[in-house]
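Practice problem 4.
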């Protein structure tokens, strides 16, 4: 703004904007001028406030004694709070800036109004009662940033159905880590699984609380649309998570069918309905009913994502024979 052409009214607006920035800085920085301190036991309390005593040690990584963490968790037996010695003048200036925010906001509005009257209203002032209404000229706050939608005092049937659909979606997503953990045989890590499920539930609940009123504001049956979409998605997640988890964390028999019996061995004596198979000590043995070489494949683990591999030369020869 300082680079704009010279204009006394514009310069006044800039000055008032900078004054408001100073008030904002005062609000943000004033508390940082306090510090925790260790009083001098041999001196009076007043002497400690005037510079006696010692500044409390700061936390590692936070060298500023006015940092909120250093003030919230004082070290070294600090029991008092005071303005940092030598910064009293800065404290008084920030305090004055902070307390002047109301007057400066009105002055900024007046300066903006004067600028707009000069450049947009050909110097004709608005009617009495609107001299301090710069917000109507400048901000249009309610149009640009409308108030957040409020929860209705009582839900109608459509709104209740929509919330039920959203809740079902949160429940379906909450079950995802538990379903995948069970299929991957990670139940021994139940703490992490339940933490993940709890995090999803809390996040989903917070999102519904934050955006729910906006989703159910449509009149009449149209308020059902978000609920129907959420219910369809929830049904898909609920029904699909089991098969998807089972596909990625399949047992050794399912992996044998997927990798061999339904593919390269489909027309061989090693097809699904012509073999006897068993798992022993991480090894899947597949024996043709009509006789032949026994296949030894591994790793045969429940919930594994590793493909089955031949464990001996005879198995490798059979797989090569059928192009596996």
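Answer key:
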């Amino acid at each position: 703004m300082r680079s704009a052409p010279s204009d006394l009214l514009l310069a006044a607006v800039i000055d008032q904007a900078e004054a408001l920035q100073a008030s904002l800085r005062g609000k943000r920085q004033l508390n940082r001028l306090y510090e925790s301190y260790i009083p001098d036991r041999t001196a009076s309390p007043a002497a400690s406030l005037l510079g006696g005593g010692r500044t409390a040690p700061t936390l590692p990584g936070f060298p500023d004694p006015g940092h909120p963490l250093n003030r919230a968790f004082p070290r070294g037996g600090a029991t008092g709070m005071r303005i940092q010695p030598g910064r009293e003048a800065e404290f008084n200036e920030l305090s004055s800036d902070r307390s002047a925010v109301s007057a400066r906001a009105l002055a900024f509005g007046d300066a903006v109004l004067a600028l707009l009257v000069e450049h947009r209203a050909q110097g004709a002032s608005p009617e009495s009662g609107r001299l301090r209404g710069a917000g109507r000229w400048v901000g249009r706050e309610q149009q640009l940033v409308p108030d957040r939608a409020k929860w209705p005092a009582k839900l109608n049937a459509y709104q209740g159905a929509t919330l039920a659909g959203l809740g079902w979606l949160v429940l379906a997503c909450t079950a995802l880590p538990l379903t995948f953990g069970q299929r991957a045989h990670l139940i021994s890590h139940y703490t992490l699984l339940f933490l993940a499920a709890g995090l999803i539930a809390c996040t989903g609940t917070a999102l519904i609380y934050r955006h729910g009123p906006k989703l159910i504001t449509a009149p009449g049956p149209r308020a059902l649309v978000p609920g129907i979409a959420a219910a369809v998605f929830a049904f898909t997640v609920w029904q699909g998570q089991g098969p998807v988890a089972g596909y990625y964390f399949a047992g050794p028999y399912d992996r044998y069918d997927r990798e061999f019996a339904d593919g390269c061995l489909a027309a061989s004596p090693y097809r699904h309905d012509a073999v006897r198979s068993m798992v022993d000590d991480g090894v899947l043995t597949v024996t043709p009913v009509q006789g032949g070489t026994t296949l030894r494949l591994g790793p045969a683990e429940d919930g594994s994502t590793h493909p089955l591999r031949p464990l001996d030369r005879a198995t490798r020869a059979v797989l090569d024979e059928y192009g596996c």
